[in-house]
Design goal:
The complex is a heterodimer. Chain A is mainly alpha-helical. Helix content of chain A is 79%, strand content 2%. In chain A, strands 1-2 form a two-stranded antiparallel ribbon. In chain A, α6 packs antiparallel against α7, α11 runs antiparallel to α14 and α12 packs antiparallel against α13. The longest helix of chain A is centred in the last third of the chain and has 32 residues. Chain B has a domain of 196 residues. In chain B, strands 1-2 form a two-stranded antiparallel sheet. In chain B, β1 and β2 form a beta hairpin. About 2% of the residues of chain B have low confidence. Classes of the chains: A mainly alpha, B mainly alpha. The interface between A and B is medium-sized, with 34 and 31 residues.
């Protein structure tokens, strides 16, 4: 029995949440659905931890779904990179669910809560599936599962603000455009190579050499994923979606969905096309790099002028995605490592901050910055968590944000790209501006006299502080995450070196 | 005293101020206990630091490593003479500052005193962390902790003005540290593969000599707390804070952390010998000189007492930067000594300014006429500290200025002696009028004191509360005492390494 489970861990990682989702829907009782979802999240987390421990030494688990050998059958392929991402996604799910109890109870009507958790589980399934699979078309399928459920999740914010509906609709349109680009790109790759298995794709590309078809496939895939990960200027869906979604959903998707999309980008860029693919090199350097820089500055600047906390955090997310793309565009071991470690670090930081925003929504009924005046006294724990998360966003030492920035700047200096290194530190200064605006509002303004704000319930405070503590813990003990990230980067690079030798 | 070993001592010195924050928080509704715990922690910390001094004098090098943050980057501490001096200054001056805070904050009916005391203790802990850092990475962490923990202190009054001042404070300190200092540290790391402070420095041979001045510039401007022009604006704008905070900023911790870091980088990253061979710091000599003179001249134009003192600090800090940039042993010794003498002098001056404000609510130099006769203790202390800052014997400041001049002579740059002399004259010009007004100018016959009050003018003392006056008298006394104790200090500072250690075979 144990043996059966350990052998099938990769499949279980996806199958368990997938099966649990309809069960939630069938019962459709809020409390029960939540319990199921929570148990599933814990099990997923345990599975991904087991997978990471099996792959941390550089091993690769290749699981053939249904016993069909690749490239015909679907292969689940786990190496240290995607095991790491799996751990992030399922870990965030584990902390988000306890947090969701109170906020969902307040924001979503009783009769819809069962469906809400169903959608959340489907979203989790999709994200885990995207990450674990070694089959390019399978990526598309899971990407759509996660996207469709996210549209629904965003739309459930309509109880609080009707604009959630248009936000979800916008997201739906743009997300579908992105998915279409992605699937067309896959089609072109299939035409060029005759295969959809990632490893085989990489092999066939080297065998057959470069072609115009491949160029087009590459470009379509890049744009498609670019939309999903909110690459500037394909980010327009993101601010509204994050702002109007229910708090728990903002927490979950902000910490996971863009990260998974970045992972897909990494996998396609380096796992399939390889480091030495000239067309990709020039694209990364002349298209992705400027866009990443633009995102870092433009989105941060826009964030400074927001009047709503959640919206500000959303713009900051776009800027942070810029950092990840920048690391990718360096195309060095340190650069990729910086990207991978930032996946984790930003997930933890942003989840903390969105939890803070959600706690404000819960207690004050709004995330407008002008409504947060003087809350530092009434809600000390929530406000302090914001300070921790905010410092990490800026990249102050002892927080995870600093670790990311350290490696990113180091990667730039290794290449001798001084202006880029300067741009990284300069853009993090803009973060000081938007973070400190909130800190001032919280602590240095006197609260409005009729404010009856109380501290958020423990069920929200504890998950929030678990993440805030993780922000500090992994900021002071980065050996674990940096080892994982470094190995993940090496895996990608050595894989692509083998391809091109 | 219980015998403690070096590593425990270091952890205690950093840890006591940290732990006391818990007590302060727990006693937030019992003001007496809360404020007393600050003072007790200050005394304990000082005792521990003294104990560590004993160990250093006995030839030991107390050190401790905590944990590895990133591969190769360890939080670790190790005591050398320079850091020992800074830790002594920070922990020693915390005692009068803590006592003074009680007197001042209560007399002013300030609120949020729990937050105030907690942040104050955190800042001290960070300052001692900076002093004992064994590598640039640890130093940078505590440097940032110091910035963040002092921000609530600057913004303490929560008025629009305080918020604006605090914003400038944070913006300049944080942007310089992230933009320049962090870049410099990462550059050093990728060029040399180490960040550990080493006697004689570790840059030589790893960085293209043509780029060494650039790296030094990144450090010099990145250490915004040293208030080198043109990144000095945060210091005057931070004077909106209550006076005990100004004392912390100007004397106990913040600016001293800046110039200390400057010296530390000069001695243990670049190496004095290396700097003098390559002339990499030559430009800094002139910038620091300019900073000294310009800031003194600006101080002359300020009528607000605290603003005048703030610009005086900007000028005096550049003495220390200058001492480093001269790249001679006497320069380093003079600079380090100036950390001590200026800290004691400036804390006295600020406490006097605060005492005057508490007693009379006067902020401007032009309003101080005749006040010296009403507040004799405060003004005598002010006079002593002023003369010490100017650098006239028989007060402590004379020594540090003398060694700085010796350093200038050793480096063969006689113009620098001129700079120091002119600056002394400027110091006289902006400090002595305050004393003169206080003692000799006739008291203004103000409208409110026309009647009976005017009659007994000059007879009645209007001193600030006892807890305000006591600490400033103590530190003024210290200005005098230090004159006689300068020998041991000089001997101690001779241990600051100038040349790289020759590896023993």
């Amino acid at each position: 029995m144990i043996d059966l489970i350990t052998k099938n861990l990769p499949a279980l990682q996806v199958v368990i949440p997938l099966m649990a989702a309809p069960i939630c829907a069938i019962f459709n009782r809020g409390r029960l659905a939540w319990t199921i979802a929570f148990i599933v999240a814990i099990v997923s987390f345990a599975i991904s931890a087991a997978l990471l421990s099996q792959t941390l030494d550089g091993g690769v688990i290749s699981y053939h779904l249904g016993g069909w050998a690749p490239p015909i059958g679907i292969e689940y392929r786990v190496d240290v990179l995607n095991a790491f991402v799996l751990l992030i996604v399922s870990g965030i799910a584990v902390v988000t669910l306890p947090y969701a109890v109170k906020s969902v109870a307040q924001e979503i009507p009783q009769e819809k809560q069962g469906f809400f958790y169903t959608a959340l589980l489907l979203c989790l399934t999709g994200l885990l599936g995207v990450t674990i699979t070694g089959d390019a078309f399978n990526v598309f399928v899971f990407l759509e599962i996660s996207s469709l459920s996210t549209y629904a999740l965003v739309a459930t914010g309509a109880e609080r603000n009707r604009r959630a509906l248009t936000a979800a609709y916008n997201y739906l349109i743009m997300g579908t455009v992105g998915a279409t680009f992605f699937v067309i790109g896959l089609g072109l790759l299939y035409m060029a190579t005759g295969t959809l298995n990632m490893v085989d794709l990489a092999h066939q590309i080297t065998l057959r050499g470069d072609s115009r078809m491949l160029h087009m496939g590459f470009a379509f895939v890049l744009v498609g994923i670019g939309l999903k990960l909110a690459m500037f200027p394909l980010h327009l869906w993101l601010p509204n979606a994050y702002t109007f979604a229910p708090s728990a959903v903002s927490v979950f998707i902000s910490a996971t969905s863009t990260k998974v999309a970045v992972y897909v980008l990494l996998r396609f860029m380096f796992g399939i096309f390889g480091f030495d693919y000239a067309y990709q090199q020039s694209t990364l350097q002349y298209v992705l790099l400027p866009l990443a820089l633009l995102a870092m500055f433009a989105a941060s600047l826009v964030a400074v002028f927001q009047t709503d906390l959640k919206r500000m955090l959303a713009y900051s997310s776009i800027a942070q995605v810029g950092y990840m793309l920048l690391g990718t565009a360096f195309m060095t071991q340190t650069g990729v490592m910086a990207t991978v470690i930032h996946l984790f670090n930003h997930a933890v930081t942003k989840a903390t901050l969105f939890m803070v925003a959600g706690a404000f929504v819960y207690s004050v009924g709004s995330s407008k910055i002008s409504d947060l005046k003087g809350l530092g006294r009434a809600m000390p724990w929530t406000s302090a968590a914001f300070v921790v998360g905010g410092l990490s966003l800026i990249g102050i030492p002892l927080t995870v944000g600093f670790v990311s920035k350290w490696y990113l700047v180091q990667a730039a200096l290794e290449l001798g790209w001084w202006p880029i290194a300067a741009a990284i530190v300069l853009s993090s200064l803009i973060a000081v501006a938007y973070v400190w605006r909130i800190v001032e509002t919280l602590y240095l303004h006197s609260p409005s006299p009729d404010s009856k704000a109380k501290e958020a319930p423990l069920a929200m405070i504890i998950p929030m502080w678990v993440l805030a503590a993780a922000t500090v813990y992994f900021g002071t003990h980065a050996a674990l995450t940096s080892a994982a990230a470094s190995r993940a980067a090496s895996t990608l690079i050595s894989a692509s070196n083998i391809i091109w030798q | 005293m219980i015998a403690i070993d070096g590593s425990t001592g270091i952890l205690l010195a950093i840890g006591i101020p940290l732990i006391v924050t818990l007590f302060i928080a727990a006693f937030s509704r019992m003001p007496n206990l809360r404020d007393a715990s600050s003072v007790i922690a200050a005394v304990l910390t000082f005792l521990v630091v003294l104990d560590l001094l004993g160990m250093v004098n006995a030839g030991q090098t107390p050190s401790v490593s905590l944990f590895e943050v990133m591969p190769g980057l360890v939080i670790s501490f190790s005591i050398e003479p320079l850091g020992m001096i800074f830790a002594l200054v920070a922990s020693g001056l915390w005692i009068p500052a803590a006592i003074y805070s009680i007197g001042y904050m209560r007399a002013e009916n300030e609120r949020h005193l729990t937050r105030f005391n907690i942040c104050y203790a955190l800042a001290i802990s960070a300052a001692i962390g900076i002093a004992f850092s064994a590598n640039l990475f640890t130093l940078f962490i505590f440097y940032e902790v110091l910035t963040v923990s002092t921000y609530p202190l600057v913004a303490h009054k929560q008025t629009d003005e305080a918020r604006r001042g605090a914003r400038t404070y944070l913006a300049i300190l944080m942007s310089t540290s992230i933009l320049f200092l962090l870049t410099a540290i990462i550059w050093t790391w990728s060029a040399t593969g180490t960040l550990d402070f080493q006697p004689g420095g570790f840059i030589a041979g790893h960085v293209d000599p043509a780029l060494v001045p650039v790296l030094l510039a990144l450090f010099a401007f990145g250490i915004g707390k040293a208030a080198l022009m043109p990144f000095h604006r945060w210091l005057p704008s931070a004077m909106v804070a209550p006076t005990p905070v100004s004392a912390l900023l100007h004397a106990v911790a913040v600016v001293k952390a800046g110039v200390f870091t400057m010296l530390k980088v000069g001695v243990y990253v670049f190496g004095v010998d290396y700097l003098s061979q390559t002339d990499a710091s030559q430009w800094l000599v002139w910038l620091a000189s300019a900073s000294i003179l310009i800031a003194s001249i600006i101080a002359l134009t300020k009528d607000d007492l605290k603003a005048r003192l703030a610009y005086s600090t900007v000028s005096q800090l550049s003495y220390i930067t200058l001492g480093m940039a001269m790249a001679t042993q006497m320069g380093i010794i003079g600079g380090t000594m100036h950390i001590v003498t200026h800290a004691i002098g400036k804390i006295t001056l600020f406490m006097c300014a605060g005492a005057i404000y508490v007693a009379t609510h006067k902020k401007k130099v032009s309003e101080l006429d005749g006040l010296g006769r009403e507040m004799p203790f405060t003004f005598i202390a002010f006079t002593i500290a002023s003369i010490s800052i100017i650098g006239l014997p028989p007060f402590a400041g004379a020594w540090s200025k003398m060694y700085l001049m010796l350093g200038a002579a050793n480096s063969g740059q006689l113009a620098l002696i001129g700079v120091l002399l002119v600056s002394s004259l400027l110091n006289i010009a902006y400090l002595m009028p305050i004393v003169a007004r206080g003692f000799f100018a006739p008291s203004p016959v103000a409208a409110h004191s026309l009647g009976a009050a005017a009659a007994d003018d000059g007879k009645r003392w209007r001193e600030a509360p006892f807890l305000c006056v006591l600490p400033l008298c103590l530190t003024a006394l210290l200005c005098i005492l230090l004159v006689f104790e300068i020998g041991p200090l000089y001997e101690f500072l001779l241990h600051i390494p100038i040349l790289p250690e020759v590896p023993t075979p």
